[in-house]
Amino acid sequence: MKAARWHGIKDIRIDDIPDPTPAAGQVKVKVAWAGICGSDLHEYLAGPIFVPVQEDHPLSHDKAPITMGHEYCGIITQLGEGVTDLSIGDRVAIEPIYACGTCAPCLEGKYNLCDNLGFVGLSGGQAGFATHSVVPARMVHKMPDDLSMEQGALVEPAAVALHAVRLSNIKAGDKAAVFGAGPIGLLVVEALRVAGACEIHVVEPSEVRREKAMQLGATAVIDPTATDAVEAIRAATDGVHVAFEVTGVPRVLPQCIDATRHDGQVLVVSIWETDAAFQPNTIVLKERQLRGTIAYRNVYPAVMALMRQGYFSAEQLVTKRIALDDIVTEGFDALVTEKSHVKILVQAPD
What we know:
2 domains; Quinone Oxidoreductase, Chain A, domain 1; alpha/beta; seven-stranded mixed beta sheet; Rossmann fold; 27% strand; globular; 11 helices; 28% helix
């Protein structure tokens, strides 16, 4: 079968690999759609970050070259031995977290903080940029009949955003800022609407993405290339309760801190390629909080329930649909050169 595999920086190839077979406790999925994530783009431009290169990942037992794609959905075509709560033909979204189940975070139920955390499609495994995927049965979530398969490919990134907002201190009636209106930033905007934020200020250089942020519920947008974003936010709010950093750009982190009010909070959602610096007194003297968030836990059912209410809509967020054969030129390279894109979906081959 065909699979898009990471071989190195700017080296993703469409390879022919064996069609996988599920072992005990696993399921085989005919992939329908898979999204290109910002994390995928980081691996393409500056990896390896999550990709294991020298040694196998301790949970995937795999290393480069690896099949990419962790935002995906499909239809179950085969059940491994012992899988009894799923059926052939089930439409499923994949929750691609590798977790050991035995470390302290896992035993506390915080499996996204596993000491050996990994992701199908980033840390190895039979992932979503391929004709078929094989994953442990615990990774699949049945999709409601009234959700499209394109919506299924958005469950994973929407889960990132909803988990971040749930972790934050935001309360109904609070004011928030979102720095970065890429796919996750836009999904954070929608999750903030769900949480009841009364003002959502979005900082984003792309005009197309600023317009999209307003369509999805932002109350104000700021072009940081034309306006001092911190001054604009503080003039409008006297500081927001929570600022979400969703750019991974080092100079933006201190801006997020400065945009919050006293006793405010910064939620760092991005995966970083380089270090970022800030003056610690900006935290200390105003008793601000700085918190990180990674992935999600126990949130897929809530995401799909919100999708049924109209949130996280594929019609609003998907800007391009491509074939697997075109994933480099029309996918990764397009995301680098065309900042107007929000979410690009890859259709799996037959």
